[in-house]
Structures are given as C-alpha cells and as structure tokens.
Amino acid sequence: MTALHPKSQANAASATPSGTGTGAFNQFVIDLFGVMAYGELSAFERLSSDARFSPTLQDRAALGRLAVTEFEHFEMVSAHLAGLGVDVEEAMRPFQASIDSFHERTRPADWYESLMKAYVIDAISGDFYTALAEHLDDATRELIARIQSTAEQGGLLQARLKAALSDDPRLASRLALWGRRLVGEALTQAQRVGIEREFLGGLLFEGNAAEQERGTAQLFAQLTRNHSRRMSSLGLTA
C-alpha cells in the first residue's frame, strides 16, 4: 500500500492526537479511508443495479439519487486520500475481496430486501465511522461529518420501507429475519476487517490486548443497540 509522502506524513502527524503521529497510526488511518472508499464505491454500484428492479419509476429515480450520493462520498474520500499523497486504488485494494464477498453472501432476493440491505448497511456504517472519528484528528472528523450531513439515505429508505410494510404486512416477518441476518453479517465483517488490519485497536483504544478487546466489544454492542432501535422504528423485531 502506498505510504504517506514525507510532507503529508508530517501534516498527518501534526493533525493527529498527541502521541499518535507515527507511521503505524498513519497506516491505520489510510486503512480506514481505504475501507470507507471501497464501501462507498460498492454502495454506488449496488444501488445503481438495484434501481432497475424498482416497482415504480419514482422509486427508480429515488434509488438513482441515492446512488449518486454514494459516489459523491467516494469522491470525497478519494480527494482526502490524494491530499495525503495516497493512491485511492492502492488504499482500497486490501478490502476489495472481503467487501465483495460480503455482498455475495447478502445478495437480496428482491427489491424489498435490497431496500432493507441499503437501510441497515448505510446506518451501521455511519455509526461505525462516527465512533471512530471521535478518536481521530480534526480533518478526519470533518470528512466523516460532511459525509454524514449529505447522507439522505436513512430517511428516504425508512419512509419507503414503512410504506411497503403498511401495504403488505406479510413482509414484516421476512424483512425482520433479513434485517437480523444483515446486522450479524455486517458486524462480523466490520470486526474481522478491523482486527485483521489492526485499525480498530490502533485507532480507538490504548492499552493492552484485553483492554482493546473489551473496548471493541462495547463498540459493537452499541452498534447492535442502535440497529435494534432502527428496526423498532419500522415496527420490526431486531
């Protein structure tokens, strides 16, 4: 993976919290941006493809707009990496196989499952990156805040899912089960990638391995609680 250019490395060191401006920390940050970039690019591709199966032209247009937003997020992260002297393709490559495999394992059976997948994954990703940003430098927090501020997915997807459930109550049990599978897969995926690349412990938690493991467990418990609240807002059991 491309290293930070000397000038960018100095800039990153000065922007990071005290004691974290090291080569290892810089690599953790690059990994975080790499997984974010490929996640946004994959979301763009997924929403663009799923839009074809929309039951109405209005739904197709809505998913198309969301896909455009995801690509804009990808471009934001790419520009930030470029500012650090890092090639976005190099930063994304370590995560390509893992994220592609996740999407293969969670291939929706129909348009409604596509909506639920977009809703669940977008929300969990947002929670995850926001939690990481609290421990990082100002530039990283600002980038994640900008992405979150332009993310309209949650409200639109929630409204469409509620309408679908209202029109066909039989969907509830199927989408509740699908939501449970998605959150399990998403949290397992996030934890696996974070641990393999070591950026969860490296970015979030100081101290020994036991403290890092405990902190990671607390983070994922909070992500699960947030998911449960979102499912309850749809009238579904998490």
From TrEMBL:
Pfam families the record matches: MiaE_2 (PF13794)
Domain Ferritin-like: 25-206
Name of the protein: tRNA-(MS[2]IO[6]A)-hydroxylase (MiaE)-like
Species whose genome carries this gene: Arthrobacter subterraneus
Top-level taxonomy: Bacteria, Bacillati, Actinomycetota, Actinomycetes, Micrococcales
